[in-house]
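Long-time lurker. I teach an intro course on protein structure, and each term I like to show students one example going from raw sequence to a predicted 3D structure in token notation. This year I'd like something fresh instead of my usual example. Would anyone be willing to generate the tokens for the chain below so I can use it in lecture? Attribution to the forum is fine with me.
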Amino acid sequence: MDDKRWRGLRESGFRILFVGLFSLVIAFIIYSRLTAPSYGPLPIESQRLTGLAYAMLAITAASMAAMVYGSYTIFRSEQVRTAGSGSLMSFITGAFANKGYWKIMAVAAIGYGIFFGFLSQILVYRPDVSFTEKGITVPSIDLIPCCNAPGYMPMLTLYFTDHFLILIIPVNVILAAVVSLLVGFNAALSVFAYRMRKSLKTSTSIAGGVGATCGLFVGCPTCAGSILSALFGIGVAGAGTSASILAPFQSLFIAASIPALVIAPFLIARSIRSSQKFT
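-- Reply from a regular --
Happy to contribute to a lecture. Here you go:
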């Protein structure tokens, strides 16, 4: 094991990760302060607000990219450090020595991200509504620069067709990306474990399933109302009522999904290691 190499990779990864996270948090706080509603005029002129909103969206995208790359660099350092050690982390990182599992992760993450996007109303398709009839130019962009809690503004709506739009709320997009990447990671590792053992332990499947299912509700509580409507035949009014009832549990869905998806790889790795002991 090259001690100098893995330490350098790890330190570089943590620096990139923390810079991305720190810049994102600070940007959210500053933007919220500048656009906070008040009885007087906004702290920043309305003419400059649109430019600031687009800058905030750009910072969000750049910070997310930095955090993903930082996490990837840390993961690579763990590959170097744990190679051949027989630890649980070595089984997790060892699976991705094969580039095929990165492809599986990418496909699973994108597929789940699209599914998540429609349920959380990031991606909205309304065949019963014509945006053109409502006076909206298609294609077009609608930006709402303020005012809401940090992370929820600016809100960007992209009208692509007469029935399809993309609604970008920073915190929803961030949560969608985090959950989708974790689901993709678990999917790739599960395929690796399946090929190693042909089946997974029940506890592993449950942990991954709980994380993936709860992750669907992270973006917004209206997702729960939509699913309840589909499952139990609740009308539009009923679905709205269900969504409002479940709104206070949004943080619970977040708390349940991400930890479950983080723990699942270690359960999968344990099943791989135990299968090797009996072969």
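Some talking points for your students: Strands lie at 123-125, 140-144, 155-159, 164-168. The chain has nine helices and four strands.
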